[in-house]
Write a structure and sequence with these properties.
single chain; 463 residues
Length: 463
């Protein structure tokens, strides 16, 4: 009997020891990171749990709200999976206030936006402009329309608020990653600016071309040439609906077509302008005759365009961290059931969703859906709780496949000024499934250096 008891104790110890050793290693590695000179004035918040048992393996400032950068996207993504659903599609309507006969439409064509972030996107074959626009032209011809007496006009029904979240910084708004989400989005609300620099440091920089050219925008370039190898150190300052843009900073000297990317200030106007020109080039005459405003009448649908499904959009949202998609998802949540489509309403619904699942709203201070705003505050415990919830849903496999791979782990990363974060999933060599979130704010030195030290800490999960 004593031998059996002793054997049982040995077996129990052998099962518990690896978990205890892992926890001890994580705590030791955490202390080493905190003692690093880069963390002298920094803040670390992090949490690792056993995904199956829910047991905490290590915790440090897990309930401290910190700017999470793009790790906030896992909250937006999970919420949208639940409230919109994996098969949700954005619909863009082509409507008219007139009638057509003998190939002539005696009226306007209204493009009714419902926030589709992939309209004209390069990420899907069938949404690329060179593929998408000819398909629309074909549909119009099949409907018996080859001449439009009126205009192409953008139509906003039920989407309120400005496109750009109020928490975005001035440094971000004019650049491609700071593009807001409008009721009509086009080409992910981005354009490329091709720049030419002189051969000498300090030489002026000139614009070669803009592709596509933002309509009615005048550029003022103060950027200069810098040493070769310095890369893109520019900022584009261009507010929504503005017609004046400033390009400042540096690009390497001796460049002939150096590409930087900006955000289109008026996507609905950009879309109708491009379509009007392309329709005309393709033989569909858009005469832009003045036709009395008939918006009070019932508009007849010509056809509808549907976006790729949400789970396909979400793949790029997480994999490539496309901020526009996050803002569009939040606004789509707000637009459900007659909502106003505003970012504020969408964020309110997201927070209510998680409050009903045990997340204190004070632990989830959202300013946007992407994490770009430095005003966001989220606790590592909240990120882990959301990830744990997602891991138990039927759509989890698609969700997990959207995660990038960092340090041989399935992790969403986040980066804004002075912030680096990771959140996601990993399976240890002994088969333990873990969920983690780590956020560092106000580190000193380079982002690359602090990331290497974060990976050294995370490597304890790979032993």
């Amino acid at each position: 009997m004593k031998k059996c008891v002793l054997l049982l104790l040995v077996l129990c110890f052998s099962v518990a020891a690896p978990a205890q050793n892992l926890s001890d290693r994580l705590k030791k590695a955490t202390s080493q990171l905190l003692d690093d000179p880069q963390m002298r004035y920094g803040i670390l918040g992090w949490l690792v749990i056993d995904a199956d048992s829910g047991d905490t393996l290590v915790s440090w400032n897990a309930n401290t709200g910190l700017p999470p950068a793009s790790c906030l996207k896992v909250i937006t993504s999970t919420t949208a999976y639940e409230l919109l659903g994996p098969s949700f599609r954005f619909a863009t309507g082509f409507l008219t206030d007139g009638n057509w006969k003998d190939s002539v439409l005696a009226g306007n064509v209204f493009i009714e936006g419902n926030g589709d972030p992939a309209l004209g996107s390069h990420r899907f074959v069938n949404t690329r402009p060179l593929q998408q626009i000819p398909e629309w032209i074909t549909v119009l011809r099949k409907a018996g329309i080859s001449r439009i007496r009126g205009k192409l006009l953008p139509l906003n029904i039920g989407w309120s608020g400005i496109p750009t979240p109020g928490g975005y910084t001035w440094n971000d708004i004019g650049n491609y990653y700071g593009a807001g989400s409008d009721y009509l989005n086009w080409r992910e609300n981005q354009y490329d600016l091709l720049l030419r620099s002189g051969q000498t440091i300090g030489d002026k920089v000139e614009i070669v071309a803009a592709q596509p050219e933002p309509i009615n925008v005048k550029f003022q370039v103060t950027a200069k040439a810098a040493e070769k190898g310095t890369g893109d150190q520019t900022n584009i300052y261009l507010a929504p609906l503005s017609k004046e843009a400033i390009v400042e900073g540096t690009i390497p000297r001796g460049e002939q077509k150096f590409v930087i990317a900006g955000s289109i200030p008026d996507p609905p106007a950009q879309l109708v302008s491009e379509l009007t020109n392309i329709f005309r080039q393709s033989g569909i005459r858009v005469e832009e005759a003045s036709i009395p405003n008939t918006l009070g009448s019932v508009l007849r649908p010509i056809f509808y365009h549907y976006s790729p499904s949400f789970d396909s959009l979400n793949y790029w949202f997480l994999k490539k961290s496309v901020n526009l998609y996050g803002e569009a998802f939040v606004r789509a949540i707000a637009h459900q059931d007659g909502g106003d489509g505003s970012l504020e309403e969408g964020i309110s619904r997201v927070r209510k969703f998680w409050k009903a699942r045990g997340v204190d709203p004070a632990a989830l201070r959202m300013i946007d859906g992407s994490g770009l705003s430095p005003q966001n505050r989220v606790t590592p415990a909240t990120l882990v709780r959301v990830l744990h919830y997602a891991s138990r849903q039927w759509w989890f496999n698609n969700f997990l496949q959207s995660f990038p791979r960092y340090n041989d782990m399935s992790l969403k990363s986040g980066t804004i000024g002075g912030v680096k974060s990771f959140a996601g999933y990993h399976t240890t060599p002994d088969g333990k499934n873990v969920i983690l979130a780590i956020i560092i704010n106000n580190f000193d030195g380079s982002s690359g250096s602090i990331v290497n030290k974060m990976f050294t800490l995370l490597n304890e999960l790979k032993k």
